[in-house]
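FORM 12-B: Structure-to-Sequence Request
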């Protein structure tokens, strides 16, 4: 049921009630084993529902992966049964409003590891279009939003099933509303400090074939030429928009340089190609401009900035690769996945670290590039912002999932990252949905749907200042882990106390012996 709160259905309000049936089922489980089973099955079902569009790539692997990830909801299910089962006293009900959301966040944190697919489908991400909640994200990231949503569901369960706990339940739900309102009213908004004119080039779908990379490049080239005379500061192409290494194909580098000169702005393209083991000499990079192993071969996905003189030397190599899509974990054991789905035939290489790119012609403005599902990781955009990024750019391609929920889900993440970091974010794709969001997470200009083949110019407001999330990081996660650790310690001490034997009784005096005649 929670999947309906995410795009494409985007019923954001449904997130606040969607967990109630599941939690009512868990609280009435006759045993902890039954609650664990229902938590596992519910978590697996949620993963399948939110990620069903991955079936063309993962094929049969989606079901065992969902079964594996579903295990992460077992601790949460046991907490629901422990704190909401039966007729909890008001104090225990009040504790449930804190510990049950903390248990949910524990499952989200565990599955956010890249090797398990990354933080896609976090419950808080369903609120990307709600301005007051986006302001909450600027304080504690998507994690704080997830806590709020689960706490409201928990309060509704208490109101429905535990009449004696209605006072703490009402207090908890009211507290969530008051917290959101207080953050909306008093947390400072990002201070606008200028603007950039950014163009997004979306060439649309290209038929698969040996010349698809050339056709895609030509389509992007043709659309970019329409931007001449529009005084743009930056042109952004989508992921895999260039299918050959620019050092190995100097003709492509010259065409891009000519485009940059014609438009009057640098181009941020994305090269998806094999890099020679001994690349040709390029102009010296700016500080922090090169990631990865420049001497090593292999296939990289790289954001490359190209000016009128050719590649500027600024390049970012994608760091976090998509399991199965861009590499196969334990390929020696799971390599057969390539025969049943669209799994990677060869593992791509990952970059060594984040990169900031200086925007020519705009002193002091630096770009923080991300590639594809890296926009799902809050820590990556936060790191770029802390390092001085004025504009976040995510280059993406979801053409393999063109008619699914994937494009809308991916585009919505830009709103969250922008709100968390107080920086505008450009989400540029090959085939849609492309979007631009301002420093508060608000949408700037029109979104480009999957049917669009166009080049669109956006006036993107820049901002300065630091959000609480950028300053303090994932503090809600740390707080939840501390609370759960405290709870486990108290329960463990209580169990030991109950099992500890009492003091040994004093030895009784031996019975008197009597003589019988």
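FORM 12-B RESPONSE
SEQUENCE OUT:
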């Amino acid at each position: 049921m929670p999947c309906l709160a995410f795009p494409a259905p985007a019923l954001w309000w449904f997130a606040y009630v969607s967990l109630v049936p599941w939690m009512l089922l868990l609280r009435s489980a006759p045993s902890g084993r039954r609650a664990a089973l229902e938590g596992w099955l519910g978590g697996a079902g949620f993963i399948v529902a939110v990620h069903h569009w991955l079936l063309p790539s993962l094929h049969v692997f989606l079901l065992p992966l969902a079964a594996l990830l579903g295990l992460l909801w077992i601790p949460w299910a046991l907490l629901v049964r422990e704190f909401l089962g039966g007729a909890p006293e008001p104090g225990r009900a009040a504790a449930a409003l804190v510990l049950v959301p903390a248990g949910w966040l524990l499952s989200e944190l565990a599955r956010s590891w890249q090797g398990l697919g990354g933080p896609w489908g976090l419950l808080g991400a369903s609120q990307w279009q709600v301005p007051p909640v986006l302001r909450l994200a600027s304080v504690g990231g998507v994690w704080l939003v997830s806590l709020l949503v689960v706490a409201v569901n928990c309060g509704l369960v208490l109101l429905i099933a535990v009449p004696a706990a209605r006072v703490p339940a009402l207090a908890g739900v009211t507290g969530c509303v008051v917290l959101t309102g207080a953050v909306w009213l008093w947390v400072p908004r990002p201070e606008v400090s200028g603007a950039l004119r950014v163009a997004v080039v979306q060439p649309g779908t290209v038929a698969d074939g040996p010349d698809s990379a050339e056709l895609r490049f030509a389509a992007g080239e043709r659309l970019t030429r329409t931007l001449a005379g529009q005084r743009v500061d930056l042109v952004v192409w989508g992921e895999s928009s260039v299918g050959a290494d620019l050092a190995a194909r100097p003709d492509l580098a010259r065409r891009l340089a000519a485009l940059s000169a014609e438009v009057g702005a640098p181009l941020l393209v994305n090269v998806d190609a094999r890099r020679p083991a001994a690349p040709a000499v390029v102009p010296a990079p700016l500080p922090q401009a090169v990631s990865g192993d420049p001497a090593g071969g292999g296939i990289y996905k790289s954001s490359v900035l190209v000016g009128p003189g050719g590649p500027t030397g600024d390049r970012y190599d994608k760091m976090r690769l998509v399991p199965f899509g861009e590499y196969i974990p334990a390929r020696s054991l799971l390599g057969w996945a390539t025969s049943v789905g669209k799994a990677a035939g060869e593992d791509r290489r990952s970059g060594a670290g984040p990169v900031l790119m200086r925007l020519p012609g705009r002193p002091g403005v630096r770009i923080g590039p991300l590639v594809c599902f890296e926009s799902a990781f809050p820590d990556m955009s936060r790191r770029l912002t802390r390092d001085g990024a004025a504009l976040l750019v995510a280059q993406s391609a979801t053409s393999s999932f063109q008619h699914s929920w994937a494009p809308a889900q991916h585009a919505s993440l830009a709103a969250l990252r922008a709100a968390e970091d107080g920086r505008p974010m450009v989400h540029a794709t090959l085939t849609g949905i492309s979007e631009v969001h301002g420093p508060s997470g608000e949408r700037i200009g029109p979104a480009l749907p999957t049917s669009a083949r166009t080049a669109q110019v956006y006036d993107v407001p820049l901002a300065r200042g630091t959000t609480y999330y950028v300053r303090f990081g994932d503090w809600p996660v740390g707080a939840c882990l501390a609370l759960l650790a405290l709870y486990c310690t108290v329960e463990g001490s209580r169990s030991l106390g109950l099992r500890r034997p009492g003091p040994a009784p004093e030895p009784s005096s031996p019975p008197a012996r009597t003589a019988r005649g």
